[in-house]
Amino acid sequence: MIKHLKNNQGMSLIEVVAALLIIGIMLISFFGLLIQSNKTTHKSHDIMDATYMAQIEMENLYNAASGATSYESLATSYILDEETTGTKLSSETLGTNQVHKYLPRESEGFAYYLTLETFAENSTYKSAVYVHLEVIENSTNSKATMENVYILGGT
Predict the structure, then answer these.
(1) Distance CA 22, CA 82 (A)
(2) Residue in 90, 71, 88, 78 with CA at minimum distance from that of residue 130
(3) Which of 79, 83, 120, 126 could share a disulfide with 96, CB 3.0–4.6 Å?
(4) Vertex 72, ends 99 and 143: CA angle to 5°?
(5) What single string gives the DSSP state of each residue in 135-155?
(6) Is 70 exceeded by the pLDDT of residue 66?
(7) What whole-number distance in Å separates Cα of residue 80 and Cα of residue 135?
(8) Which tens digit of pLDDT belongs to each residue from 18-60?
(9) What is residue 73's predicted lDDT score, i.e. its pLDDT?
């Protein structure tokens, strides 16, 4: 080994090309890792944005629930757009409960999907409403889902 280092002839062209090839393969694998990391970071950012918007919307629904006496008054406080409030897409019975799905609302690059479930009149939870909200970021389809049960009228 020492004998080879004392040689003043230098490295051959084949040795230089082999070293560059090995370095190139290593760099290509690192670039792939960096690109995937960048994509993951952007997707996480979009999910965080959707979660933040869902949290704001759930807080608005919570505030509306404290003054609402029925699910209808809660739904009408949920604004779909400037002209339409609380437009119901469908209603179905699930056991003794009623499930009400509302038209999605588009705002600031997000789509909001609201579902309210009311409990039977003879139920202990007759003044409660189960709220399910999905927020989808339109450009990347990143989704955040939030659920809660609100007691109407604050009682």
Answers:
(1) 62
(2) 71
(3) 120
(4) 55
(5) EEETTTTEEEEEEEEEEGGG-
(6) yes
(7) 13
(8) 999 999 999 998 898 899 999 999 999 999 999 999 999 888 8
(9) 76
